[in-house]
Specification:
It is built from eleven helices and 33 strands. By secondary structure, it is of the alpha+beta class. Helix 2 packs antiparallel against helix 3, helix 3 runs antiparallel to helix 4 and helix 4 crosses helix 5. The N terminus is likely disordered.
C-alpha cells in the first residue's frame, strides 16, 4: 500500500474511532444524568446523538421517556414511534406509554390497539373502558383556582379550617434562585392560603418552618389541624430523585419536631400521604420492591404512640404494572387515586374504588371533565359539601403546560358503571300463572355468582357485571328446571322462564300428557296409524300406567278442520281406538282405557274451516290426549 494512502487510512480510522468514542462518551454522560433524573440535560445529549443518525432501542426509549415523564406527550410520541418502528416487540411498560402518548395527542384508534396489547388483566377492551368512562362523565363542574396558579407548578388539595395547603414552584428567594434539573423551575415549597370556595381571602404564605433545600409537596393534615404529613425530596444533591414522607407537629403557630418516618426506605421513593377519617391508616405511594408496577398505593397503620406498622400493598386489583399515585381517602371510605396503568383518557387519570374492609369493589374512572388528555391528579373532595380540588397540566388550547389547581363541584354521585340488571318472570308453562318463590341462580365460570327468589308476581331482578356472561337456572320444587344465558354488555335485559310441572296429584280431569311432559300423540293427514315418533311418547305413558296399576285414562283424539265435520269425527274415533289398541297390545287392561274421538270440535288455534293456516298449524290439532278418570 502506498505510504500516503496508508497515512490517510490511519487518519480516517483515528477520526472514526474518535467519533465513536465521543458518541459513547456522550451516551455515558447521558446515562449518568438519566439515572439522576436530570432529564432535560440528558435529553439534549440523547437528541444530539440521535441527530447524528444513531439508532437503537435504548436511545429511543430514553428519549421517549425523558419527554413522557415531563408530560410532553407530543414529543414523547415521536421517539416511541421510532422505537416501535425499530422493534414492535417491546416491554409492556412501553406499550402502555406509547398508547398513552397516542391517546393524549388525539390518536385514539391506534392508542386502543396498543393498550389492548398491554391490558391482559380482565379481558376488557379499550372500547369497554371508554364506555365505562362515559357512564361517569359530566358529574363535575370545574374551574381553575384564581390567584394561586402561577407560570410554574401548583398542586395540592389539603383543605382544613378554611385554609388550603398546596405545593408551588413560585420562587420567593431574593438572593439565591435555585432551579431543579427535572423541569428547570424553582424547587417546590408548601404554601397555605385562606379560601372561601374558589375565592382567595388572603395572600399565600410559605410554610417556612418546614421549607428545606429541595422539594416539599403533597401535604395532608390531621382532623385537629395539629399534625402535618408531607413529601420531601432527599437533602442530598446526588439523591434528589428519592422522596420521603415527613411528619411535623404544630407548636405555637410553627411546624416543629420534623420526623423522618419509619416507612421511608433508602434508594426508593415514599410520597403523597393521606389519612383516613379515623386517622388509623396513612396511605401513600411508593416504588419500593415487591410492588406490582412503577409505583403502588400502600397503607400503614398508625399506632397510638404515633409509630407506624409495616406498609401493606393494596393489591393487584388497585395496583397495576403502571403507576398508581396521589391517593385520597374520603370520609365514606372511598379511595381516589391517579393511575396510568388503568385505562384512561391520557396521562394520569383519577380513579375511584370503594374500600369495604378487605373487599375491593369495581375500579371506576371518574370521567370527564376531571380527567382529560393530560395528567390529572391530587384529587380531594369533601363528601358533605361535594366540593374539592384537583390538579392538572392541561391547557385550554389542548396542549400541555405546568400543573395548575382546579376547584371542583360534584353534581351527581358516582355510579357503578360495571353494574347491569337482569330481570324477568318465572311462570307456570301450562297456565301462565306466576310461580312464587321460584329460585333463579346465576353461574359464571362454573361457580355460583348469586341467587334470588321470585316475588308474589313471579318477578326477579338481580345485579350483574355488565361485561360478564352468566348461566341462569330457574328452579322450583315439583317443576322441571330450565336454564338460559344472558348477553354480555347490555345494561338491562329481560330473561323469562316457563317451568313445566313434573309432579301433580292424579285427580280426575288432569291431562297426563301435560303433567308428565308427554307430547301429544300426532297423526299424519287422514291417517289413524301410530307414527314412529308417537310410539316413543306412548312408551312413556305405558311406563306410567305400569307404575300406577289402578290408574284409568280416557284417550281423546282430535283432528284438524280440513275435511267435513262428519268425516273428521269418524277419523278421530279411529285414531283414539288405534291408540287404545296399541296400549292393550302392550299389556294394559282394556278396562283401564276409554277412547273417544272429538273430530274438529276442540281446535287449539284459529285454524277452523276455510282458514289459511300452514301445515304446521294444522298439525297442532291432530293429536291425542290422556285424561285421568280415576
Amino acid at each position: 500500500m502506498n505510504k500516503n494512502y496508508q497515512y490517510l487510512y490511519l487518519l480516517l480510522l483515528f477520526f472514526s474511532i474518535s467519533s465513536i468514542e465521543a458518541q459513547e462518551a456522550k451516551l455515558d454522560m447521558a446515562e449518568k444524568k438519566y439515572e439522576n433524573y436530570g432529564y432535560i440535560n440528558a435529553r439534549e445529549i440523547y437528541l444530539k446523538v440521535a441527530e447524528k443518525g444513531f439508532e437503537s432501542e435504548e436511545l429511543f426509549q430514553r428519549l421517549g421517556n425523558s419527554y413522557y415523564f415531563n408530560a410532553a406527550y407530543s414529543d414523547a410520541l415521536v421517539w416511541y414511534t421510532k422505537l416501535f418502528s425499530l422493534n414492535e416487540d417491546q416491554e409492556e411498560k412501553y406499550l402502555r406509554r406509547y398508547a398513552q402518548s397516542l391517546q393524549a395527542t388525539g390518536n385514539s384508534k391506534k392508542a386502543e390497539s396498543y393498550y389492548n396489547l398491554f391490558q391482559e388483566k380482565d379481558g376488557l377492551t379499550a372500547e369497554d373502558y371508554l364506555y365505562l368512562i362515559e357512564r361517569n362523565s359530566g358529574r363535575y363542574s370545574i374551574q381553575k383556582l384564581k390567584g394561586i396558579n402561577t407560570n410554574g407548578r401548583e398542586f395540592g388539595h389539603s383543605f382544613k379550617n378554611g385554609k388550603l395547603i398546596y405545593a408551588s414552584t413560585q420562587d420567593t428567594g431574593v438572593f439565591v434562585k435555585r432551579k431543579n434539573s427535572w423541569d428547570g423551575l424553582s424547587f417546590l415549597n408548601l404554601y397555605e392560603v385562606e379560601l372561601k370556595q374558589d375565592s382567595l381571602l388572603g395572600k399565600p404564605k410559605k410554610l417556612k418552618s418546614i421549607s428545606g433545600k429541595y422539594h416539599e409537596s403533597s401535604a395532608t393534615l390531621s382532623e385537629n389541624g395539629k399534625t402535618l404529613y408531607f413529601t420531601r425530596s432527599n437533602n442530598n444533591k446526588n439523591q434528589n430523585q428519592y422522596l420521603k414522607i415527613y411528619r411535623a407537629e404544630l407548636n405555637n403557630g410553627k411546624w416543629k419536631n420534623l420526623e423522618d418516618l419509619s416507612i421511608n426506605i433508602q434508594g426508593y421513593s415514599t410520597a403523597h400521604p393521606t389519612l383516613d377519617k379515623e386517622e388509623e391508616y396513612l396511605y401513600f405511594a411508593s416504588d419500593r420492591p415487591g410492588g406490582f408496577g412503577e409505583s403502588d398505593i400502600y397503607r400503614a397503620a398508625i399506632h397510638k404512640d404515633g409509630s407506624l406498622s409495616e406498609p401493606e400493598n393494596l393489591g393487584p386489583e388497585i395496583n397495576t404494572k403502571g403507576k398508581e399515585t396521589f391517593p385520597f381517602i374520603s370520609n365514606n371510605s372511598e379511595l381516589y387515586f391517579s393511575s396510568d396503568g388503568h385505562f384512561g383518557l391520557g396521562g394520569l387519570d383519577v380513579f375511584y374504588v370503594k374500600m369495604e374492609g378487605s373487599e375491593v369493589s369495581n375500579i371506576l374512572n371518574i370521567g370527564r371533565p376531571i380527567n382529560s388528555y393530560a395528567d390529572d391528579f391530587s384529587f380531594g373532595v369533601n363528601q358533605k359539601t361535594k366540593q374539592g380540588f384537583f390538579s392538572s397540566n392541561r391547557k385550554e388550547n389542548g396542549t400541555f403546560g405546568y400543573d395548575n389547581i382546579y376547584t371542583l363541584k360534584e353534581k351527581e354521585n358516582i355510579q357503578n358503571a360495571y353494574k347491569a340488571i337482569i330481570l324477568g318472570k318465572v311462570l307456570e308453562e301450562d297456565t301462565g300463572e306466576p310461580l312464587v318463590n321460584a329460585s333463579v341462580k346465576l353461574y359464571t365460570d362454573g361457580k355460583l355468582y348469586d341467587s334470588i327468589a321470585t316475588d308474589g308476581a313471579g318477578n326477579y331482578s338481580i345485579a350483574v357485571n355488565y361485561f360478564s356472561k352468566y348461566r341462569l337456572q330457574a328452579d322450583k320444587e315439583d317443576y322441571d328446571s330450565k336454564e338460559k344465558f344472558n348477553k354480555p354488555r347490555e345494561e338491562e335485559q329481560e330473561i323469562n322462564f316457563s317451568l313445566r310441572r313434573n309432579t301433580l296429584a292424579l285427580v280426575p280431569g288432569t291431562d297426563i300428557s301435560s303433567l308428565l311432559n308427554i307430547k301429544n300423540i300426532l297423526f299424519d293427514f287422514d291417517m289413524a296409524n301410530i307414527r314412529s315418533d308417537a310410539q316413543i311418547e306412548l312408551e312413556k305413558l305405558l311406563m306410567v300406567m305400569q307404575d300406577y296399576p289402578d290408574l284409568k285414562l280416557e284417550i281423546r283424539s282430535h283432528t284438524d278442520s280440513r275435511g267435513s265435520d262428519s268425516y273428521n269425527k269418524a277419523l278421530s274415533e279411529r285414531r283414539a281406538q288405534s291408540t287404545k289398541r296399541y296400549l292393550i297390545e302392550k299389556g294394559i287392561s282394556e278396562q283401564r282405557l276409554k277412547a273417544k274421538g272429538f273430530g274438529e270440535e276442540r281446535l287449539l288455534n284459529d285454524c277452523g274451516n276455510g282458514s289459511a293456516c300452514s301445515s304446521a298449524e294444522h298439525q297442532r290439532n291432530r293429536r291425542s290426549e290422556f285424561i285421568v278418570l280415576e
